[in-house]
Amino acid sequence: MSTTALLLVLAAAVCHAGWNVVAHGVSRLGTPFLWWGAVASTVLWLPVVPFSGGLGASVGGLAVGAGVSAVLHVVYMTVLQRGYAVGILSTVYATARGSGPAVSAGLAVLLLGEQLSVTAVVGIAVVVAGVVATGLIDRRPTGSPAPRLLHGPSTASTPSAPGRRRRLDPGIAWGLLTGLAIASYTIWDAHALRTWDLSPVSFMVGVTLVEVVFYSASLGRRRGELVAVARAHWPRVLAFGVLSPLSYILVLTAIRTAPVALVAPARETSVVMVAVFGALVLREGSLVKRLAASVVVLGGIALLAL
To answer: Which end of the chain, N or C, is more open, meaning fewer C-beta atoms within 10 Å of its C-beta?
Structure first.
């Protein structure tokens, strides 16, 4: 991977870690916050479109590409928010970011015809191993109380009886589902940008615009919460509106020239930042253990940069 592409991906990782911390803090708000996030993303980035390649080479391709991507992103955000509501930040985030690039790399080789060197394959494996280790370290024991959702019944589970079979940590389960969603939109978006020569900024704005429509349709009785959410959480909404699109615009710019199979795992340096945040601020586990796993991730990134 070129130095330019790597720097773009590392910058994207910083932004991605930032908006995930923001999203975790309001995970119980659900769709009302996601609606405001999509609106803010569209409004804040739309003025940038004329200065960043316009609508690209194909308006039709932009419509199809962004439309399909929006559906996949809505699935991703919904699953991610649900995971954050029932699991701890580091477990959900790291599991998702570990499984996502592994699946993305495989699909990139099979569907996009990308080729990988032995060093790249080893680098991907090391990154995924480090990310998964980060997610498994100090995870909440099965049967411990989970956070309560703002609307709906409690998600807390009762402790398992002695000798009873332990269930899979819900944070890991939802993290894996999130990883599949990540792989789906990553491969589709790379295909769309390369096939129709689309501008990353206009593509992202198209995605968030369609997301507004989807979230509007799914609000239902919760429409009445929109004003209250905006008043109470407008700084988070603005942060999300800036950082979430920016993180992916940088990735989209990178995958126009670099292999998806390399870009996808390289993004996961964000796991290092989120893991440290989880240990320092949220008291979610051992800082030393998380840093050790993070070093493994960085080692894999170094291999990808060769």
So the answer is: C
